[in-house]
Design goal:
about 0% strand, mainly alpha, single chain
Length: about 180
């Protein structure tokens, strides 16, 4: 028997609710053990670099010219070596990743301040400025306390991201489920 569209939506929203709850739990666990969560992120980044290096080398062999082939292979090897180095030294990778995050937040905050003032005549520009100032402050705080904060920054930010994403998914999924129940 064919399942109704509302039945499909209800079932999908149920899975989405479960995923939202799982994300919230994962976020809380990441914050509770932020060092382990940070190391897991670093190891994931290292394996992604190695994978990217292999793909880069394979792509290099498909290059049409000798100079491009050599460049692609060198870039691929660089990715593989960097990923391998991070796998052998995850603490160093965590230090570097923390500094990269701090630098990104500072640069993002500065550009967002410029954007806020460009939006100044428009309604809501203050919220953009508020976000920019908080982001800049957060980046400066992480940078000012680096490397001492490297043990917890990455894992804590990951946990916060998981919690916010999980709560958002949960709220949207519950709203979809309520609409589909009301329509039935």
């Amino acid at each position: 028997m064919a399942e109704t569209a509302l039945g499909v939506v209800k079932r999908a929203s149920g899975w989405s609710i479960a995923l939202g709850i799982l994300m919230i739990v994962a976020g809380v666990l990441a914050i509770a053990d932020s060092l382990t969560a940070g190391v897991v992120v670093v190891i994931f980044v290292a394996w992604m670099a190695i994978f990217n290096g292999v793909v880069q080398i394979v792509y290099g062999f498909r290059a049409e010219t000798g100079g491009r082939l050599v460049l692609e292979i060198l870039l691929g090897l660089l990715y593989i070596v960097a990923g391998g180095f991070i796998l052998m030294h995850p603490a160093g990778g965590l230090l570097a990743l923390t500094l990269i995050i701090a630098s990104f937040l500072v640069v993002y905050g500065v550009f967002a301040i410029v954007l806020a003032f460009q939006l100044r005549p428009h309604k809501g520009w203050g919220w953009v400025l508020f976000d920019a100032l908080i982001t800049l402050l957060l980046g400066c705080l992480i940078w000012a306390h680096w490397p001492l904060n490297s043990e917890w920054v990455v894992g804590t930010l990951l946990g916060i991201s998981f919690i916010v994403s999980g709560v958002s998914r949960l709220m949207i999924s519950m709203a979809v489920r309520n609409v589909s129940s009301a329509a039935a």
